[in-house]
Structure formats: structure tokens, C-alpha cells
Amino acid sequence: MNPLAANGGNVLLEVTGLEKQFPVRGGVLSRAKNWVRAVNGVSFALDRGRTLSLVGESGCGKTTTGRLIARLLTPTAGSIVFDGQEISQLSERALRPTRRRIQMVFQDPFGSLNPRLTVGDMLEEILKVHFPELRRRERRERARELVTRAGLSPDAVYRYPHEFSGGQRQRVAIARALATEPDLIIADEPVSALDVSVQAQVLNLLVELQENSGIALLLISHDLHVVRQISHEVAVMYLGRIVEQAPAKLLFAAPVHPYTRMLLASAPSLESGRRRQRSLPEGDPPSPVNLPSGCPFHPRCPDARPECARETPALNTVAPNHRAACLVHAPAAGDSTAG
């Protein structure tokens, strides 16, 4: 079992050594001249009814990780075990039963909704595919129930996507994700384009749905306030790798990895609305096409040592339920807490 599993027998999703490389093509024949390592050895586990958040700067690989788990992309390497079944290399036909149980909510709900269909038609189309035993009247009634669960009025089934506000469209997207009765929802920046007040409404809806249905939630976000509000566990990604993972309260109270501390320092303070006064590393992340040797964060790390440029740190246990990939904070030789 993945050592990052939180509660053992209740694991729904188990990801081990996940990798995704994209070719960089050039020349007359458009041959692959190099490779972008978008996801580079990611491992984690998610329990039923829990929320795990992937956070990090743009380009860190968190969205690609979500799309790999939803099998919108095929992994280059690694394992994705969903409810005991390995799904990383399944064919489209073999994936069909699993797709019903894993749904995505995207950042731009308008772009993911069919503008030519009413909400009711959209939902009924999904129900017809996944629940062919339902009659037309039953599908229409189920569609009304879904929009009601998502916090909209039942007559929303007669309206088109352009007739809704941004927050309402995101509720429609959530209703669509719920239509297949999933066990896992992958929410990719679900509230980043919404006003703060609307963000709170959508987040509260997700929490309520999780409490009522036991759905597991993989949240992908750069907004640390959102992550702190609804997450049970947080995994911090940098250049395709997880560099720190811990329960949300522990990670925000006592971050270990210098990159995590950088992220927290750069987030506006909830109390004052100002950025915390703490020295931040300079420069942009290295190119994923040409990763630095050793620890990928060492060129920007204020705590870097000479060995950081030579050795790639593993994700080791640095405290109970707390793991970090940092040579400075690595457990001593012989320490039984190493994961």
C-alpha cells in the first residue's frame, strides 16, 4: 500500500510514481527533440469522504495530475489504483464504468457546458448514457433533483448556460458531475474565476455534498485560503513533484519545506490583507524541459547546501503524518520515521 495513505483500509484512490512527459518537437519531421516532465514521480492516497488539495505555482503539474487521474490523459509511467482497480492503462472501453465514478469540475464552467442545450437536456443526456433503465419522465425528475442539490431552483432545467451567472454556472457544472453518482470529484480551480462571496457559497456547497454523500474530493488550487478552508490533507507540488504533504492544519501551522514556506509567505494575510513580511526566494521556476540537478528547488532555496545540487531528496517522514522532500530536513540515518 502507498505509504502516503492516511487511514489504511478506507483508501479510494492510490497514486504511485505517476509520470507524464510531453514531447517538444522540432525540425522538418517534427521529431521529439526533448521532453517536458510535467508530472515526475507523484505518489499520494485519498480516502473516501476526504479532501486532498494539490497546490503550487502555475506550471507545477497539479492540473496535469488531475487530468491523469480522470484519465483525460494517459500516464507515461506509474500506477493509478481506484477502488482497488488499476486504471492507468485501461482502454476507453474498459474505462467506461470507472468514468462514471470519477468526475471533473473545471475552472471555466461556461467553456465546459454545451451552449445549445438546456441544463435539463444536458443532465438527461448523461443520465440516458449511464442509467439506461430510467424512463424519460424519471430522467427529467432526476435532473430537477440534481439542480436542487446544487443549490438552484428546479426550473433551472429549462434554462441555457448563458442565462446563468458565473456562480450559478459552476453550480450547474457540479450538478452535472453529481449526475453519475461519483465516488470522486476532481475540482480544478473551481472558484478562482468567481467573486469572493460566490466562492464561499460554492465551497460550502462542496463541503455539504461531501458530508451528505461521502464523496472524495481532489481539489486543485493556487488559492491557499480556499485550500485551508475545506481541505483535510494538502500536497504541495513543485516542478512535477510533491515536495511536502501533511494534514491541512499541520501544514499551515508548521511548514517544513522552504518552498511551502515561500507559498505561505506570498499569500495575503487573512488578518491584514497584506503580504507577510518574510524574505522570498528570487527568480522564476526552472524550465521543466531542463530541470536542475539534485533538488529541483535548490536554485531558489535560501537554505540550500552544496549537496542539494547533487542529491534528489525523497519524500520522507519528518514528523507524524508529515512528509517533506528536503535534504535539510531529512531524517537522520537509521531514523525509523523515514517513509
Question: What does this protein look like?
Answer:
The protein has 339 residues and is α/β, with parallel strands linked by helices. It folds into 2 domains: 1-101 and 184-285, Rossmann fold, CATH 3.40.50.300; 109-181, no CATH class. The protein has 10 helices and 12 strands. An 8-stranded mixed beta sheet has the order 6-7-8-3-9-10-12-11, sandwiched between helices. It is globular and about 70 Å long. Mean pLDDT is 87; it is low at 1-8, 270-279 and 333-339.
What's the architecture of the largest domain, going by CATH? Answer: 3-Layer(aba) Sandwich
Shape category? globular
What order do the helices and strands follow? EEEHEEHEHHHHEHEHEEHHEE
- N- and C-termini, Cα separation: 12 Å
| Highest CATH level, the class of the largest domain | Alpha Beta
- Structural category is alpha/beta
For the sheet with most strands, the description reads: 8 strands, mixed
| Poorly predicted spans | 1-8, 270-279, 333-339
By DSSP, the count of extended strands is 12
Number of helices: 10
Number of domains: 2
Task: Let me know the average pLDDT.
Answer: 87
CATH topology of the largest domain, what is it called?
Rossmann fold
**Which range does the strand content fall in?**
15-25%
